[in-house]
Specification:
Radius of gyration: 22 Å
Strand content: 25-35%
Distance between the termini: 39 Å
Largest sheet: 19 strands, antiparallel
Length: 540
Amino acid sequence: MRCTPSACADADAFAAFALACARQGADLLLCHPDPGHAESGAANVSPSAQFPGAPDSPHVHTAMPPGWTVWPGDEGEGPCCLVGIGPREELCLGDPASGPHHQNHEPGPHTDAALASFLGFSPPGDGRATARGRHDAPIPWQPARADHDIALGFLAYTYGLPRFGIRSAKPRVLPHALLRRYHGMARWNPANGALTLSVHPDAPADLAARCARLLADAPAPAAFTAPSGRAAFTTPSNYAVLPPSPTFVVPTGCIALQPSLDRAGYTAGVREVLRRIRAGDNYQCNLSTRFGLHAPGLDPAALSLHLWRTRPAPFHGLFRVGERHVVSASPERFLRVDAPGGGPARVLSQPIKGTLAFGPGTQHPAWHSGLPGLLAATPKERAELSMIVDLVRNDISADCAYGSVAVARHCATFRVGGAASGLVQMYSDVTGTLRPDRTCLDLLLSAFPGGSVTGCPKRRTLEIIEAGEPHSREVYCGSLLAMADARAMDASIAIRTGWHDAATGRFEHCAGSGIVVDSDPESEYEETWAKGANFREVCA
């Protein structure tokens, strides 16, 4: 189905449709390229011209990264929103609800093999460059031919710990990994307004009609036709324009829960990390705390769509896990792989390090054009990113062609969040070419968990995090992902991410900051507090 392009109306119609689907159990991955919020193109500004002592190199301020970009075969490119409707296959690993003796409780080679089997890939290597030889035969690719073949899901941060010899006993409520394929997959392309529904042959016969009825309640009129090979998905003849459904109502009686590390506890944790850095244990560490609300009336589907409309970010997501929902509004891409035209598979990672908050109550009460340069000119923030870029280069090199890994737009900036308040973030593009004998899953597991939310060296830093944080990170700092085939994937870093439990009414979310040798404990806490604003300001 396709709708007449009209950006504002189409966004409203899609939001209403996605909300209705999510309230009936659908999973969402939502990009948000917002022309009214993100700068168009890139501007080169010399930080040293504005800030004496800054590095004398061009600073690139870009539009917000475009977000989820995953297409089966060679259908097209560009950011998109995906709605997974009616799971037909599911792989859930290490779900605490299955009990402590569940055979897939602890991640390891058997769970890696289960992921590969679910995705239809050959068994993955063990994440080391020696797992398979550099001259092994290429894997025979089988590109996905339809959206309903795409798998959506997440890997929790906890999935990566056993790979580094860490056995965490901290209580969890979410599984280590979740992957699903669906009876129907709706895709919305914000560039041209196209909304399509791909239906699996085994789907219920009335799936397209049920989706059409949901779409009929959207607030903008549209006529839809199905592309060749797709199921027909048209609005009923009695279509009527209705007022948009309420997207989000703050539940009454919300009560803030005690964070796992309050200001005193967090700053003490930063000082302990600094002690370890000075002792030579590591040289960067991401320390987090967990915030929470008692919010029994919270509607996680409405919260997700509300954040998508009001807090722009490239990688929004919503996943239902039993009585719980994972809600993510992440600005950071972990790994993207695509192979345009059937050519070599390109790898892109966009690690973020360096943050500057603006808005009421911050040091910078309003957005102005000098803020990106101010961030890019800060030696401490540049050092944070440079360390992580070096780590990411190492993480992806085992699965990329020799000599193909490179870095572009080092220390570029973009802004994310609302118009009145938000964050300026700094990032780099780390690129490579996937080896023909490797799959997206090989790459994902080799680099997991992402370096920007751990630190370096990774193994030792993971141990320090496990000892210093009293909470389990759950899916926070893991990865939400969409995988079409062995060389088509997009995956986020699951920051700005929380989860709601309908049974207990608790909504919990984490935030953290990267600590290096010249970090100030109070400043790191303020950065962590600012990163939690999405959920704190909307839900409280």
